[in-house]
């Protein structure tokens, strides 16, 4: 009897769990297959790739459901296989010659929807759009080619966040650029070769974008250019340290010295030199005295005594005035040849 009661209890719990799972599954299916309210109009569109798109997928405009996918068939056009998607659009929505359709990710589980976008112009009504007005689907897993070692160090939540940010950028939403750059930074922090990781990621995004033909190419190029700039900056990081160390600490005293001697931004240097040296000979004489002046400022312990100075056996050479200016006060003696 006890065994029968235990088995009955298990069966009851299993039955309850199955009923709850069935109800939840029904709710999910109902949400996915949410019908379009009111009258609808039928239209078709050709895509080169509709991977992940299914019958009863949503047709959305600015995030709001305006229709459903009713049928997907394969057709041949000019020797190429295309996917012809039949759409049911709620009134008053319709396709026009300016309409653009794109297969986009609804979530990270792979569910897709058809996004309908209208340009500013008022196009003429149509019932069919060719591939020149549609953007195909793409496989997000292609984004991770070559990044598996880094992805192993991330949690599922971080990978999902990175993927969602990448999707936002690839699907043409400019608001996803800042989060995408933040995600790239987190990935780079986990990588041994940051440059190689960013290069691989940008290449993967470029390949995906080339298959989409959308406007995200500008964003990809921006990220590539930013990568080049950061990489170049990393090679001269020590120069930034030197600039911080020697720049302000050196230039501030120099600026004070220049101010103290009377030089201002509006100072006429030519006039100042003309006032100080009325002739070329006076300027040469002043330059001749400079080495002696600096020599007088040197510490006594660092100078060479006269007894230790080297004497010329044949006497000093007679030098031109221009050379004497250079050697004056430098303790350099030019001797006469033998």
UniProtKB/TrEMBL annotation:
The keyword Cell membrane does not apply. Pfam families: Mce4_CUP1 (PF11887), MlaD (PF02470). One of its GO terms (biological process) is biological process involved in interaction with host. GO terms for cellular component: extracellular region. Residues 41-117 form the Mce/MlaD domain. It comes from the Bacteria. Keywords: Membrane, Transmembrane, Transmembrane helix. InterPro entries: Mce/MlaD, Mce_C, MlaD_Phospholipid_Transporter. The chain crosses the membrane at residues 12-32. Residues 129-232 form the Mammalian cell entry C-terminal domain. This is Virulence factor Mce family protein. It comes from Nocardia africana.
């Amino acid at each position: 009897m006890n065994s029968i009661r235990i088995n009955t209890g298990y069966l009851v719990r299993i039955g309850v769990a199955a009923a709850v799972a069935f109800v939840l599954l029904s709710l999910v299916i109902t949400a996915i297959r949410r019908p379009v309210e009111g009258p609808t109009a039928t239209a078709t569109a050709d895509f080169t790739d509709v991977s992940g798109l299914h019958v009863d997928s949503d047709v959305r405009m600015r995030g709001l459901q305006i229709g459903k996918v009713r049928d997907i068939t394969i057709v041949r056009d000019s020797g190429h296989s295309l996917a012809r998607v039949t759409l049911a659009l709620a009134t008053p929505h319709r396709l026009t010659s300016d309409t653009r359709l794109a297969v986009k990710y609804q979530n990270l589980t792979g569910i897709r929807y058809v996004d309908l976008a209208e340009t500013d112009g008022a196009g003429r009504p149509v019932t069919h759009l060719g591939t020149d007005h549609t953007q195909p689907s793409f496989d997000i897993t292609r984004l991770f080619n070559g990044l598996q070692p880094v992805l192993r160090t991330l949690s599922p939540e971080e990978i999902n966040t990175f993927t969602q940010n990448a999707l936002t950028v690839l699907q043409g939403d400019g608001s996803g650029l800042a989060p995408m750059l933040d995600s790239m930074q987190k990935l780079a922090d986990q990588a041994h070769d940051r440059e190689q990781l960013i290069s691989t990621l940008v290449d993967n995004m470029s390949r995906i974008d080339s298959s989409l033909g959308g406007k995200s190419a500008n964003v990809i190029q921006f990220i590539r250019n930013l990568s080049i700039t950061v990489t170049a900056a990393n090679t001269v990081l020590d120069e930034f340290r030197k600039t911080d160390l020697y720049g302000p600490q050196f230039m501030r005293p120099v600026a004070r010295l220049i101010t103290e001697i009377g030089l201002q931004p509006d100072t006429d240097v030519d006039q100042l030199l003309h006032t100080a040296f009325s002739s070329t000979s006076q300027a040469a004489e002043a330059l001749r005295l400079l080495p002696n002046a600096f020599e007088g400022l040197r510490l006594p312990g660092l100078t060479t005594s006269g007894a230790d100075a080297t004497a010329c056996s044949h006497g000093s050479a007679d030098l031109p005035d221009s050379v004497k200016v250079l050697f004056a006060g430098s303790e350099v003696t030019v001797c006469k040849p033998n």
